[in-house]
UniProtKB/TrEMBL annotation:
Binding site for NAD(+): 18-23, 121, 177, 329, 356, 358
Pfam families cross-referenced by the UniProt entry: NAD_Gly3P_dh_C, NAD_Gly3P_dh_N
Reactions this protein catalyses: sn-glycerol 3-phosphate + NAD(+) = dihydroxyacetone phosphate + NADH + H(+)
Organism: Thermothielavioides terrestris (strain ATCC 38088 / NRRL 8126)
PANTHER family with a match to the protein in the record: GLYCEROL-3-PHOSPHATE DEHYDROGENASE (PTHR11728), GLYCEROL-3-PHOSPHATE DEHYDROGENASE [NAD(+)]-RELATED (PTHR11728:SF8)
Family assignment from sequence similarity: Belongs to the NAD-dependent glycerol-3-phosphate dehydrogenase family.
Protein name: Glycerol-3-phosphate dehydrogenase [NAD(+)]
Domain Glycerol-3-phosphate dehydrogenase NAD-dependent N-terminal: 13-194
One GO BP: carbohydrate metabolic process
Binding positions (substrate): 144, 329-330
UniProt-annotated catalytic positions: 264 (proton acceptor)
Molecular function GO labels: glycerol-3-phosphate dehydrogenase (NAD+) activity; NAD binding
Amino acid sequence: MAGPSDSPRRKHKVTVVGSGNWGTTVAKLVAENTREHPDVFEEEVQMWVYEENVVVPSDSPHYDPAVGDAPQKLTSVINKYHENVKYLPKIKLPSNVIANPSLVDAVKDSSILIFNLPHEFIGNVCKQIKGHILPFARGISCIKGVTVTDDKVELICDYIGEILGIYCGALSGANIANEIANELWCETTIAYNTPPCDQRLTNGVNGAHGAGVPVRFPKTKLTPLPEDYPPLDHGEIHKLFDRPYFTVSMVSDVVGVSLAGALKNIVALACGFIEGHGWNATAKTAVMRRGMLETIRFAQEFFPESIQEMTFWESAGWSDMIVSCTSARNWRYSKMAVERGVSLQEIERTELNGQKLQGISTTKEVMSFLRARGREDHYPLFKAVEGIVDGTFEVKDIPMLFRK
Ligand SMILES: NC(=O)C1=CN([C@@H]2O[C@H](COP(=O)(O)OP(=O)(O)OC[C@H]3O[C@@H](n4cnc5c(N)ncnc54)[C@H](O)[C@@H]3O)[C@@H](O)[C@H]2O)C=CC1
Ligand SMILES: O=C(CO)COP(=O)(O)O
């Protein structure tokens, strides 16, 4: 009888769940890598698209006079022209990215699931795919946010892992999708821990950085990755994401990577408000420093068992804080809201063409969690951002928060 080592070697099939600005960019870079590593990955990358109708503008090279201004399915446009004309216009996607409007079909038979959509939609997506994925699939969440219920705050990757019964790591960094899509160099951080049940494939090799951090796995029993698949350890995950223009650091601290990515969106709103009010770099750096202190305080207070402060020196930490407070969407549009004297919610509705500002919901969720514990006054900057978003606090009063 044939043993496991005689079995034919299978390849990892990859699906990107989500196709916004970042989702499409990650699908592009991952598809470049599946092409370069045909021994490990199936070439075709499925990309789930939340289907909608789009009108291709007349100045687009993909404008078809026979179709004119008639609405077309976004998936058909992506598959025909290899461009996501709505969320990542003017970027050519590799032809092995396949847009799929069916969530269940897109994740079918995939052993690697990359979750990349605004965090408010992840619950519904997980509900729909539960029971339709390979039981031994492994996940990477590129989502910046947290999930909050009355009694707990959860990392998105833990939430995905618990609902689907799989292991899920986290990717986060100083990453502006349009820059990476244009292949302008940057770094990112991936936190992933090979589950013990998969380690017979990897000799326990997990990567050098982060040794000593208690490793977290879902409470549910994991199904081992079958032996005829290539192992999934730091080396293989690195192979899937690292590009000449996208330098990946592998770490083990899932908590630090996830919380830094989620909470910097609150600080980015504060920086936009500050700048919209007319203050400049010195005020912004004060807010960034205060924001980082509150981020680390939050991590230490609610995830004390696993946080590693070195993570804040990775791309997911200070670099993301800096880029988010100087050039990302949450900063840009909160500045615009103050300059125009309108609410941030209105700016999101009128200016973002379907893209989402994760800072708005993250601020509300984090503050409701803190308030339920009577801890809101220990996070004065986060509280001020909530007040500004709700119209109950004024930007000019931010410095008063920090006077002894
Ligand atoms: N855009 C960027 O530069 C970066 C974004 N991120 C993070 O990546 C995550 C995904 O963001 P983006 O790809 O930028 O999204 P986006 O903000 O560009 O696009 C919104 C997406 O949500 C989808 N959507 C709308 N309604 C939906 C529903 N009911 N159910 C499911 N999907 C729905 C839209 O189809 C679209 O794909 C976020 O957590 C964000 O913080 C992280 C790094 C960089
Ligand atoms: O996460 C990001 C930068 O690292 C992108 O942030 P925005 O969603 O504010 O554009």
